[in-house]
Write a structure and sequence with these properties.
By secondary structure, this protein is of the alpha+beta class. It has helices at about 5-10, 30-35, 55-60, 120-135, 175-190, 205-215; strands at about 5, 15-20, 40-45, 65-75, 85-90, 140-145, 150-160, 160-170, 195-200, 215-230. It has 6 helices and 10 strands; from the N terminus they run E-H-E-H-E-H-E-E-H-E-E-E-H-E-H-E. A 10-stranded mixed β-sheet has the order 1-2-3-10-4-9-8-7-6-5, sandwiched between helices. Helix 1 (about 5-10) crosses helix 4.
Length: about 230
């Protein structure tokens, strides 16, 4: 039931698993232990309204580290910002993602892994961002003002929608998060994307408020649990 999570294996430098079948927690303890043994850590993800009893998860060694909200947003009706912002697509004007200018990812669930650091979490975003820029530069934008980058929003097509994968404002940005998100999402809509979807941590109240103001519809609440070999 557990499968390797290739991206996290690359990032962590060890074997890491992903589990999405709640039937795992009904198996005998000995079988669960054997299935977990090859991994450094394993993440279990499940909609909260379908999740097993929390004490059963705890008995199996899984701790809840986050709850994520899935949402959907129409991209064709985002109002223009009153700020004089520029938006450039990586496919037309390539740009870099300077890690030194990134904010701290204080709502990232992986910060709860044993022995992890803020630098290690940033490395995950670096790998993720580079992959998005390579795969879909036509859906990756840099938002700026007065010649200064204020933030980056990286997306990619997924099924019939745009996966709004990774957004981050520059450390010390001078524009509001609302203006940043609105500028990027409006640019996606003007390029032809009709619908955006993604998930964010329920801890991230600023992003929740931004998407609410921009008209997002909130869908499933998804629990995230982790087991560690430690």
């Amino acid at each position: 039931m557990i499968r390797d999570h290739d991206f996290n294996c690359t990032w962590w430098g060890a074997r890491v698993g992903i589990l999405e079948d709640a039937a795992f927690f009904s198996e005998p303890a000995e079988k669960r232990t054997a299935e977990l043994a090859p991994y450094s850590w394993v993440e279990f993800r499940c909609a909260l309204d379908e999740a097993p009893d929390p004490w059963r998860l705890s008995d199996a060694g899984f701790a809840q580290v986050d709850t994520q909200l899935k949402f959907r947003i129409g991209l064709g009706r985002i109002a223009a910002s009153t700020e004089p912002l520029t938006v450039r697509f990586a496919s037309e004007e390539p740009f870099a993602l300077p890690e030194k200018d990134w904010p701290d990812f204080i709502h990232e669930r992986f910060r709860h892994l044993p022995d992890t650091t803020a630098k290690k979490v940033s490395e995950r975003y670096s790998i993720w961002g580079a992959g998005l820029l390579t795969r879909s530069p036509e859906w990756c934008v840099e938002v700026g003002r007065d010649g200064q980058a204020e933030g980056w929003f990286l997306a990619e097509p997924e099924g019939g929608h745009l996966n709004l994968a990774l957004a981050m404002t520059r450390r010390g940005a001078t524009i509001s998060g609302l203006d940043f998100y609105a500028a990027a999402l409006r640019a996606f809509g003007e390029r032809g994307a009709r619908l955006g979807e993604a998930r964010f941590s329920i801890e991230n109240r600023p992003v929740h408020n931004i998407y609410a103001r921009l008209g997002a519809v909130f869908l499933d609440a998804i629990g995230c649990w982790m087991w560690s070999a430690r």
